[in-house]
Amino acid sequence: MMLNCSEFAGSGGWSLTDAGRGEDLRRLAAELDAAGARPVVVGVHARFVPLNARFLEAATRWQVRPLPGQPMAANDHADHRWDDRVLEALGSVGRQLAPLDAELANELARLGGYAIRYQDAFVRASRGEVRWVDGLGIESCHTVWMQLHEDLLATLGLARGPGK
Q: pLDDT, tens digit, for every residue of 16-26?
């Protein structure tokens, strides 16, 4: 494994070197092709992209609630009707994620499990534990969603960017 150790502001950790990232991409591509799963994963990714846009819109509405004179005001979660509409959108996205997750897991087992983890976080958020939508350091809806997105991009060898 090719790793770099780094430290910033009192926190340290490990990250892959450029050579390590290249090797990871090579191995992911080999796994995908050996399983004959590329067409399915490409198809799922194509259906994920518009779902991702809907997730990002809902996540933004969870974090920002425009007010008169403050178009980027932070959502203080005091307006329960606003939050309920956002949770409805997040629930819809989660329901649409489930069949994609099942299709991925059918091809490559390591790509499964995202939908249940998302649903677990969503249930907690729906019960009023607001940090389970976008909290850091926990398997929040946002954390699970971003892990799936990164996994799809890495598996397909795609760079992050618009429409991906």
A: 677 878 888 88
Residue 133 CB burial class (10 angstroms; 0-12, 13-18, ≥19) = buried
Long-range contacts of 151-160 (CB under 8 A, 24+ apart): 151/111, 151/114, 152/41, 152/44, 152/45, 152/48, 152/111, 154/24, 154/25, 154/28, 155/28, 155/32, 155/41, 155/108, 155/111, 156/32, 156/38, 156/41, 156/42, 156/45, 157/25, 157/28, 157/29, 158/45
Per-domain boundaries in the chain: 1-34, 38-156
Model-wide pTM > 0.85 = yes
Most confident segment among 23-37, 45-59, 67-81: 45-59
Collapse the DSSP code of 75 into the 3-class scheme (helix H, G, I; strand E, B; otherwise coil) and give the result. Answer: coil
- Residue type at position 23: E
CA 2 to chain centre: 26
Q: How far apart are the first and last CA of the chain?
A: 28
Rounded to whole angstroms, the Cα distance separating 163 from 53 reads: 8
